[in-house]
Amino acid sequence: MPIDARAAEASLADIDVIVARLKQSSVYRSASTIIIVWGALVACGYLACALAPRQALPIWIAVNALGLIATFAIGLRLRRSGADFEWRIVAAIVLFFAFGLTCSRMGHFGARELDAFWPILFMFGYALAGLWFGRAFIVLGAGIAALAFAGYLWVDRWFELYLAVVDGGGLMLAGLWMRRA
Amino acid sequence: MTNDVPKADDVIHQPLRLRIMAALHAGNGKGQEFDFARLKSLTQASDGNLGSHIETLERAHYVEVERGYRGRRPRMVIRPTALGLRAYQDHVAFLRSIIEGEGDRKA
After folding, report:
1. Does this complex have an ipTM over 0.95?
2. Is there a contact between B92 and B26 (Cβ–Cβ < 8 Å)?
């Protein structure tokens, strides 16, 4: 079976394509569990806020603390199994929180604005991550951000329930899709 | 297997088998698990084609295939053997040697 330089180059290029696909698939799989966990937590957070609006602050502190602990634990487990996991992801989440807290403090938002602001902020973060890690993050981020903003404009009552479905449910669905990648 | 001059591997050179081995090699030792569906997605092969080439690699002892069930659905997990990984590395070294100017070779 003769193999010339052109065939060899084609074979090596084929290998590069597979390795790149595997890398992206690994990123999606690593991120999927974290995204599903955040989706479930956020959905619970909105539902709890709909039931007990006066407890919004402790609810969201608990949701975010649990989310960060879960992200850290999942990252630790992924690293132990030999998978690629960038600790910069945890750092990026913390930085987004810091930025969000600063903006929400300076912006004098009302409860409704805050409800819309946080998912939109984090969804822009996902979209930003997508510029490096794959289009699925861009679609997820831009899609949920747009739906959250549309809800802010047009969903009057049930806004928190709407966000539980759109933000929490959207994250869980996207995470499940990424798991299959 | 420790030849100084790398040689082509007829089993691995086939394009789909090369893609399968490339994925298994790249994911080896990184906590990656490759079931049939994942390899199908990575290689973009049809079910029948992928299945027959996995069998060829299995017959050559380049992969081990664990057949089982997840719930009620049949599930196949494919793992590279040490022999398969070595053969893949040798084949890639052979391909590079051609490009680096050693000229055409006969397998």
Report:
1. no
2. no
